[in-house]
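Chapter review: from sequence to fold.
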Amino acid sequence: MNTNGYVDYLVNNIMKYQIGEPILTKDLSEKIIDAYQLPSDKAKAAASVAMKRIMERQAIPNLRQYQKGIYYLTEKTVFGETEIDRDKLLAVKYMLPDDGYETGMLMLHKIGLTTLMPNERQIATNKAISNTRRDNDLDIILKKPRTRINAENKRYLQFLDILTLYNAAPVDAEDPYQILGGLVQKYDLKYDNLLRLANRYYNDKVILEVAEVADKGGLDQYEIT
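The token string follows.
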């Protein structure tokens, strides 16, 4: 198929995206693979060339390029053009499908352990090459996880990160262990798995905190395997 065929195909697909939703060239190339049974390298090249043509021709007038390989649809408002959805961009770049999770003091605020709201947002992600680095564009701190994140361990590691910060945080919740126990229940976490991961990747204080959550957070409410 010539380039115009891929252009028309991608235009039809791009118009299905929501305003502000990140549109990744790599996702578009996967659509081309599925539709035309192209090998990965050829599909990537086809998607890149087609996107260049789409932008040059203004085939989609409200399509904007955020950075290399990332686009979004905009619309005009009384305040000007809408921008890319940064929360969705953060998710697709660093967390989805199972590459990362939110961590840090802001996470403790979100779950109700502290009323203090830090300005700094932290993400533990497999995409972090060094222990800590900043994405200035999204204004977030990226942290290398204790071990590689996957679908099975993501919630466990996030919970153990919370326990790591617990004693250093200005916790002012009336019953913090009930909040922590509630997370165990919400995400169906098993205490033996928490202890195993804490022993392997965290320190003795975190192991003791797991025991405290089990004791004070209502161990009898949860199944242990």
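Two observations follow directly from the output. The two ends are 55 Å apart (CA to CA). The chain has a mean pLDDT of 93.
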